Structure formats: C-alpha cells, structure tokens
C-alpha cells in the first residue's frame, strides 16, 4: 500500500450504472483530503482512472486502509481484489458550466456538446448531472444546429464502422407502438434480397421490449464488432444488441438515466437514433414513425416536426434518410413482451396460418420501401419483391442462417404464470390505450422477465361478448402478476362501446 | 420473520440523502417480486413506510433473509438491527406525470405542485427525479402563478409557527457575496431594540458558508421548535439552523440536490426563501439583494426582475416584504468561510478597532431599514437608532444573551494551516471575482471544515506593492490546501491594474 493508496476489498454491491467507491470515514485519505459523502472523487488503478461518487462507511465493513467499489466501478477499472487504488478530488469538469448554461436557456455550440458528451461517455457525470442534462434538452429546448452538434458529438465519441461498400441499409421505428416488431422480418427479407443490413438494436428504454430484448430470446445478441463483422460478411446482415459495441457509447449512458425518468425528447431521440445509424456505417436509413392517439407520436403535426428534424440532421451528416408515417392507433401483432413478440415474428417468417396479418403487412411495406430506397427494386415493385422473398421461405432461411451465425437459433420460452382477462360486458373494441397497455406489460415483468408481458386477443373494431377473453397476462413471478392486475383494476386499457367506432 | 420480511443487518453505508436498501440478488423477495438494481421499492417497518432505491448485493455481505439500509433510511424508518421490514414495489407516483409535463414545457397548477412537493417532502422522489424537477423549474421556466403555487405547497407540507404577535421581523440576503454575514449583527441590533426576530438560517448551498455554518462556530444551532420558542420568548430573537426544524421540509430535500448541481433558479430561490419566512411566522421580511458583476445577481435588470417576483409572491401570501438592492462588486468583511466570517461578526459586535467597516455599515443600513419597516423607528431615524444600539454595546450584550440561551457562546477556531498569497507585481486592485474566490474557499475545505476558507487583505481600489499579502488561505487538511493552490495557479481572483479603476 502506498502512502495514499487504499486496498480493494470486494463487497459485491451493484449500483447499476453509477460508479460508487466505499471508504471508511476515518481512513487517512478521507481525513487528509476532507471528503464527505456524495463527494465526487477520481479513482486510479495503473493507467485507468474513473470518477466515482463517495459513500462513506461507518462500520467495520472495511478495515483501515481498505476501500470497495460498486460492480460497475470494478469493471470500469479492471480491478481485482487486493489491488491498490489512489483516490483524489475529482477534477473540475468544465463541461458542467456548459450544461448549466443550457439549463438556463442558452444555446450551446458544437464545442460545448463535444465537451459534455465526451465527459458523459467517459463516465465523468454523476447520475444527477445526467438527469439534469437530459431534462435541460427535453421539451423542445434544442434547435436544429444544436441537435446536429449533439448527434455529431455522440458519433465522434465512439467507434464508427466502415463497411467499405454502399448501400448499407438500416431501419428504425420510433417506438410507442407495443408489439411492432418488424425489424427481424425486414432484415430477413432485405438480406435475402442480397442487400447488406448490419442491424444493431437497443434494449427497451421505456417500453416493455426493445428489438434486442426480443432477439435475445431467439439467439445471442451481445456480439462485439469483430464477431458482428464475421456474421455480416457471411450472411449480409445481423440482428445484434448495439450496447455490446462502442457505437455512440454516450447514448448508452444517457438511456439508462432516461429510463427511470421516463423522458421523451425530440432532440435526444434524433441524436440517439441517428448517431447509432451513422456510427454503424449505414448509408440508407428508413424510419418508421407510427402516429396515433396513444403512440409515442400522437399527431400528424408532431410526426411532421420529427420527420423534418430527422431529415435535416441526417442530411447534415451525409446519411440518406426516408421516413414512413404509419398508423399507430393500436398495438401490432398479438404479443407484447420479449418472448411473446418473438413468437409473433417466428409465425410471420414461417408463414404460419395464425401469423398476425398486421405485423406481416407492416414488415412487407417497410421491406419493400427499403428495397426501392436502396436501388434494389424499381420503384413500385419493392413490395411484391418483399412478398415473394417472404412467401418463398427465402427470408425464413436467411433469418435462420443469421441466427446460426450469431450463435444458434432457439425457441423463445413461455411464461409459467398466465391469466386470462375477459370482457365484463358485450360491445365493440373502440379503443386500446398503448401507454396503459405498455405499463401493464412492464408491471408484469417485461422486459426484465423475458417471457412476461401480455397476449392480445382482440383488435380495434372487434365485437366481443360478455366473458370473452380480451388478453392474457404472462408473468414469471406471482408478485409481478399481482402488480399488473392491481394496476389494471383502476387503469383498463381496452375500451368497449355499444356501437362500432365511426 | 414473516413470509415476505427481511431481517435488517447494519452495514453503516452513508449515501447522504437518498434512501437505499441493500438486498441479496437471490433473496426470496427479490425473486418473487422480480426486482432489479435501481428499482424503487417501498420498505415498511411497523407503521412507517419509505421509498428506497434497491442496490443488489451479490456476495455474502448479507445472509439469506437479510437486508440492509443506508444511514438515512435507518433513520427515516426508526429501524434497529434485527428489525424485520417488508419490501414491495413502490406505488406509482402520479406526481411524476406532472413533473414530466413541466419538463415538456407545460404550466403546472397548484394541485400539481401540492402533489409534487408532498412526494418530495415525504422522500418519495429519487435523486434523479429531484434533479429533473429542479432542472425543469430552472432558467425562467416558472411563471408568477406557478411560483406562488410552489411557495404555498412548500409552506403547507411542513409546520408553521404562530408567534401570536406582530410584527415578526425577518431578513434574508440573496447570496453570492462572500463574507456578507450581516444577519447575526442585524438580529442583535433589532432584538436589542425590543423587536421580535426569530431567525432561521440555512447552511451553504453553493457558497463557502451559510449563516447557520457561521453561527455553528459560535453556539449551538440545531434547536427544535420547542427550544427555539424558549430562546425567543426569553431574548426576543434567535439564530438557529432551519434544517433542524420542519419548516418547509421539501426545501431541505431540494437544496441537497441543488448543491451538487450548482443550479440557480429564480422561482426555486423565491419559493425557498419565502416559504421558510412564511413557515417561520414572519410578518415583515427585509430582502438584501447585492448586485455586481460576479455576485449571484449580476445586473440591475436581473435584480429588478427578482425583486418584482418576490414582492408579488410575498403579497399573495400576506407577507410584508421590502427589498434593498446593495452594491455587490466585492466581498464584504475580510473572512470567507464559517469561522473566519464569525471572527468578523464578533469584531463588529464588540466594536473592535480593526472591525471591517463595510460589514458594519451594511449591517447598520439593514438594521435601520428593518427598525423603520417594523414601525419601531420613525422613517429617517432607523439607521441612527441602529448605530446607537451597536455602539452602546446593547447589541453585543443581546447577541451574547441569545447565544447563551441557545447553549453557550464560544470563540470560533483558527485553522492549523495558513498560507499567505502575495502580489506578483505592483498595481491597484481593479477587480475581485467573487465566484472564483468562493471556489477557492470551498476547495480549501469550507464549509465542511469550519475554520477553512480565506482572509482577504485588500479591497477594490487598494494600491499594492510587489510581495504585499493579498490574502491568506486557511485549511484543515494539506490535501485541501494543495487543491486550492492548484486551482489558484490557473484561476486568480484578484486583478491588479496599473492605474486606479475609473
């Protein structure tokens, strides 16, 4: 142990993302430096340095001369038990002045965003700082130039893949529509057509499932760049989790704080989506914006604003972008939750008789558009080409090959606990509240519990009789099932009317 | 242990404010309920319930069936080792929807503020939520009605003292001017005149010292309402820390997150100041707003806006309010830091020959104004009456009596480490940057280390020769002294010019 060093002792405390260091109140470093709880400190081990929040220990949990780290901090430092770390005051972060300037309503320039995003990606912001930054950028407080600068900063701070060819196809759905899991189907069709589509997806932010959560019930998704390249070179496409790569790493940090805050922000959304696409080497990106009263985007005006922002930011980065606005009045497919949505995807790819028609149609429209956009199909023929590739089994064969290359295809599981919810009176389904529905699926355990969520048995306009099943709750734990039912009791998400909706 | 209970084992981890519960990943409650790290849970013990953030433990730190709490959570629950707590999912906080609405730029009504502030005061907001709420209200995003509603909500959620008489005098300085410690002197003068002035003060938020920090170097300040009443009934006034009372408790919660974020917000400032005054039973409040290029309020326009907001919010709550705008171009007195400022206060009260003239003059102006405002002195005679009470020793006698009633007067300490900083060339003092100066004092350890800070030896306009002392750094730990010097090397706060400033 050096004069200012502390010996690391494992305590196994998982604080999720934020790095925490545990130190004795009476340790010589605390005394000499004058640290208090919640102070930000710099922890060094060999050539690595991280910023951590101090939690003071007032017990014999740690012996004199010892310190401990949260799980994430052990990982970030590459530390082993018994290693000796140095602890000093955290350096002043100049970028926090820029952040405060944004909070006070001032515009930030590119340099300011580079500084902020650099510090975010390096883990130098506390969760409080991250929450403040996200809040300051939410609610329409970022103009076009700021959004372009934020996007560029997020690309620059991470790796950027060069595929050495063009076009490189990509797609993204601006969330909010439960069950709208078209991506695996679109990738299968487009790569079956011979195009290159190296798809990286995220896990859920505020929804019951992200594409990465769904694909994880089918195959391995945490590939590194080398493994991803191997899959793409062999099969022309992949379906991996972007978080295992270092594409736009600041986005991964921000998203983990956005989730508990449940914040939506146009600028953050556009920067998040486009920085990932640009970093992943895409040249042609198709964006699906579902519009509906309870979708993420609720009105045509809002969709138009988001579309214009996306197009302008994409253009500033040399990315070809096409936006499709789709109906977002109700969930797509039947399942909501990772495994339940995977079952729907498999049914469409296998051409099962019971496959959800709406999911199939949406995937065909998107794939057709992408085939034309990338110059593979003559305008007007993309959709029929997509249809041919799906119905011939070519897309299903390609999907299986991609999953095999990623580590093997498996059947998604089924939840041990299921409970049907039935109609309390007869009527027509006149409304499905996607936000409440998503909440129910999350309370039931999705996406953390992969087989949890719910299966819808009705669509808008359907006629139902008293006692007919409306949906089935799926859960892995009784507590979660109870919690979803408790919320449902006061927050039903299916509206039954006496007459057919106009 | 009940079926869903967990036995509490002390770990002694201090996370400062946020309640944290430590649970084993494989514990039956985690498994049954499906909790993950950072989940918000409700922890119950007998009739008390708190919301806490879950940190998962993946080691033998806790045995099966055991859980632990952070220091603040033990305190909030009144828990003892071996107690059995119940843990369930935290209920959905409806007020978070209101908070998000504010983030998205919508106005909030009184009901929304009541809901938010109620949850804040009850500790139901995570630090992330608090950071988001503060950010959403910063930067001029609150209108008058919202500020009135926020103030009212902050008063309602705590206790409110009724002194059964009028006037009840109070004063407050809108910070930003280091060393401007007039409050103890004003209270001594005003109560010596026979008026009632039960003064509650806060600790530093972003400054090197708050009045409570300064008073704590002289006497006991953590009195409860009963003890405070006893002091006021006997002496007509007191100088206590507001945080030990439950006046505007939401403010105490918010301030602890504002501090690391270093955020200023007009609405939050007004609500914080006025809710404390109203809850403390004040009828007449005098507000000192120093205006200067490096003070908190930098321009006459800003001061005017803040004054108008304060007057309107005070009027809406039936509080008589008078604002004095004062010069804020340089620090007041000599010392900056709890004990150093206390020495200045004592020098003025004792009538010491070396007492800082500027601090004395400011205190006399404020006390005189307050004597007139409360109807004690005829307009135009308040200042000479204040002068008489100070120079006759009446104020010093009253101050000693108040400190004795609070628990005894003691001399403030002196820092073990002191280092003079001298002029590197001759010239005139043409500028003193209060923000940088405050930062240096904080890096030297203030206010955590009570005797730390700095002592100024020059004022604006002073002529200095090469090698003359400009100020003396005071520290309790070598690490802190070094840190202050390191910052000073690149951020000097005293500007020397060749000619006298115009």
Describe this structure in words.
The structure is a homodimer of 502-residue chains. Chain A is α/β, with parallel strands linked by helices and 502 residues long. The first copy, chain A, contains 18 helices and 19 strands. Chain A has helices spanning 28-33, 71-77, 95-103, 110-121, 127-137, 144-156, 183-192, 211-216, 225-235, 249-261, 266-279, 300-316, 338-350, 357-373, 382-391, 394-406, 434-443, 478-490; strands at 5-8, 13-14, 20-24, 40-45, 48-57, 66-69, 84-89, 169-173, 197-201, 237-241, 284-291, 320-327, 335-336, 417-422, 427-432, 453-456, 463-464, 469-475, 494-497. A 6-stranded mixed β-barrel of chain A has the order 1-6-3-5-4-7. Chain A has a 4-stranded antiparallel beta sheet with strand order 13-16-18-14. In chain A, helix 12 links the parallel strand 11 and strand 12. In chain A, helix 6 (144-156) runs parallel beside helix 11 (266-279), helix 7 (183-192) crosses helix 14 (357-373) and helix 14 (357-373) packs across helix 15 (382-391). Chain A starts with a strand and ends in a 5-residue tail after the last strand. The interface between A and B is large, with 63 and 63 residues. Strand 2 of chain A pairs antiparallel with strand 5 of chain B.
Topology:
Two copies of one chain form a homodimer.
Chain A: E1 5-8, E2 13-14, E3 20-24, H1 28-33, E4 40-45, E5 48-57, E6 66-69, H2 71-77, E7 84-89, H3 95-103, H4 110-121, H5 127-137, H6 144-156, E8 169-173, H7 183-192, E9 197-201, H8 211-216, H9 225-235, E10 237-241, H10 249-261, H11 266-279, E11 284-291, H12 300-316, E12 320-327, E13 335-336, H13 338-350, H14 357-373, H15 382-391, H16 394-406, E14 417-422, E15 427-432, H17 434-443, E16 453-456, E17 463-464, E18 469-475, H18 478-490, E19 494-497
Helix pairs in contact in A: 3-4, 3-5, 4-6, 4-10, 5-10, 6-11, 6-12, 7-14, 7-16, 9-16, 11-12, 14-15, 17-18
């Amino acid at each position: 142990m050096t004069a200012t060093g502390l010996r690391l002792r494992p305590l196994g405390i998982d604080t999720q993302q934020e790095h925490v260091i545990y130190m004795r109140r009476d340790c010589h470093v605390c005394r000499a430096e004058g640290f208090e709880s919640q102070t930000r400190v710099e922890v060094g081990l060999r050539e690595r340095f991280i910023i951590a929040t101090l939690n003071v220990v007032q017990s014999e949990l740690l012996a004199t001369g010892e310190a401990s780290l949260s799980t994430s901090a052990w990982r970030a430092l590459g530390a082993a038990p018994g290693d000796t770390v140095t602890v000093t005051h955290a350096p002043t972060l100049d970028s926090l002045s820029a952040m405060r300037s944004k909070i006070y309503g001032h515009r930030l320039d590119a340099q300011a965003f580079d500084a902020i995003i650099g510090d975010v990606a390096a883990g130098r912001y506390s969760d409080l700082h991250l929450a403040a930054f996200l809040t300051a950028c939410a609610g329409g407080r970022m103009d076009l130039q700021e959004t372009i600068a934020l996007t560029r900063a997020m690309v620059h701070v991470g790796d950027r893949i060069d595929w050495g060819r063009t076009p490189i196809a990509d797609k993204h759905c601006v969330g909010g529509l439960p069950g709208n899991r078209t991506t695996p189907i679109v990738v299968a069709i487009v790569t079956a057509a011979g195009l290159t589509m190296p798809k990286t997806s995220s896990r859920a932010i505020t929804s019951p499932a992200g594409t990465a959560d769904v694909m994880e019930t089918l195959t391995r998704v945490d590939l590194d760049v080398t493994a991803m390249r191997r899959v793409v070179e062999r099969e022309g496409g992949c379906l991996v989790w972007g978080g295992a790569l270092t594409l736009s790493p600041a986005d991964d940090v921000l998203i983990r704080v956005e989730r508990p805050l449940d914040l939506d922000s146009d600028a953050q959304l556009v920067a998040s989506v486009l920085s990932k696409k640009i970093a992943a080497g895409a040249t042609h990106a198709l964006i699906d914006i579902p519009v509906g009263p309870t979708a993420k985007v609720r009105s045509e005006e809002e969709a138009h604003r988001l579309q214009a922002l996306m197009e302008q930011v994409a253009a500033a980065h040399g990315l070809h972008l096409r936006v499709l606005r789709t109906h977002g009045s109700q969930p797509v497919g039947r399942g909501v939750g990772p495994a339940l949505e995977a079952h729907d995807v498999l049914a469409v790819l296998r051409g099962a008789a019971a496959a959800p028609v709406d999911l199939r149609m949406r995937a065909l429209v998107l794939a057709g558009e992408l085939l034309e956009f990338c110059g593979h199909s003559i305008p007007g023929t993309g959709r029929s080409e997509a249809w041919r590739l799906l119905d011939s089994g070519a897309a299903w064969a390609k999907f299986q090959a991609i999953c095999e290359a990623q580590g093997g295809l498996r059947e998604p599981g089924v939840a041990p606990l299921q409970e049907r919810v039935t109609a309390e009176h007869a009527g027509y389904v006149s409304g499905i509240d996607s936000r409440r529905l998503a909440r129910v699926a999350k309370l039931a355990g999705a996406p953390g519990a992969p087989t949890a969520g719910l299966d819808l048995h009705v669509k808008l306009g359907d006629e139902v009789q008293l006692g007919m099943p409306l949906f089935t709750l799926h859960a892995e734990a009784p507590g979660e099932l109870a919690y979803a039912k408790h919320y449902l009791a006061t927050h039903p998400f299916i509206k039954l009317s006496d007459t057919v909706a106009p």
